[in-house]
Write a structure and sequence with these properties.
Elements: E1 10-14, H1 21-32, E2 35-37, H2 47-52, H3 54-79, E3 86-88, H4 95-102, H5 105-119, E4 127-132, H6 135-145, H7 155-170, E5 177-181, H8 191-203, E6 208-211
Parallel strand pairs: 1-3, 1-4, 2-3, 4-5, 5-6
């Protein structure tokens, strides 16, 4: 029997707001017997203020996320990967995507300097899974989960965000990348979708692969 390429690996699940990163990360960690590491979104004290007044609170919100993710990643670097591997629901490098669409020129320049200093000191994943979905699908999922602070999110903002994610991952080369179209599937409610994806992950090698589930239309 061939060795399981997922054993002991660092897998990062990424994608725009509402795409299902955390739900998939939980399922993958359970499937592979890996440690689960989630970003601390709701602990950001500036997030609610950001959605109410983006121009005023974007920089503080972004900087809190950057430093908190850095703290988690440095812990990985210092302790080493768990024997069973690690699954996260974010990629540290994606932090710049939100900075790019939310910060003004001066804030963005300062943010970039801080990011570059921190980025040199963290581990890189062995595999990145990028979930993409149409903006209208993302908005529907966001409304369904009913988080009060996310109510101000608009379809227009999600359109800008999904485009920024596509541009980022179009040029991403730091790790093998599996791009998954998740507009018409649900990995949590439909087990067959998850089984097919896990098989795809197990066979993933180098470079970039695109996975369009059979349930997609």
């Amino acid at each position: 029997m061939a060795a399981d390429r997922t054993t002991g690996r660092y897998i990062a699940v990424e994608g725009p707001i509402g795409v299902g990163k955390t739900a998939l990360a939980r399922r993958l960690a359970s499937e592979f017997g890996s440690r689960l590491l989630l970003e601390t979104v709701e602990e950001n004290p500036f997030l609610r203020k950001f959605y109410e007044d983006p121009e005023r609170h974007a920089f503080q919100t972004q900087l809190f996320f950057l430093l908190e993710r850095y703290r988690q990643q440095r812990d990985i670097q210092e302790r080493g990967l768990p024997a069973g591997g690690l699954v996260t629901d974010y990629l540290f490098a994606k932090d710049g995507i939100f900075a790019g669409i939310n910060l003004n020129t001066d804030e963005g320049a300062l943010y970039k300097q801080i990011f570059q200093l921190l980025d040199r000191q963290i581990p890189r994943p062995d595999l990145v899974i990028y979930l993409e979905a149409r903006p209208e699908v993302l908005l529907k999922r966001i409304k369904k989960r009913g988080l009060e602070y996310e109510r101000p999110i608009t379809k227009e903002y999600l359109e800008r965000l999904t485009e920024a994610f596509r541009n980022f991952f179009h040029h991403y080369t730091e790790a093998p990348l599996l791009v998954v179209n998740s507009s018409d599937i649900d990995f949590v409610e439909h087990g067959s979708d998850l089984v097919d994806l896990i098989n795809e992950i197990r066979s993933m090698r180098q470079g970039v692969q695109h996975y369009i589930p059979l349930g997609s239309r």
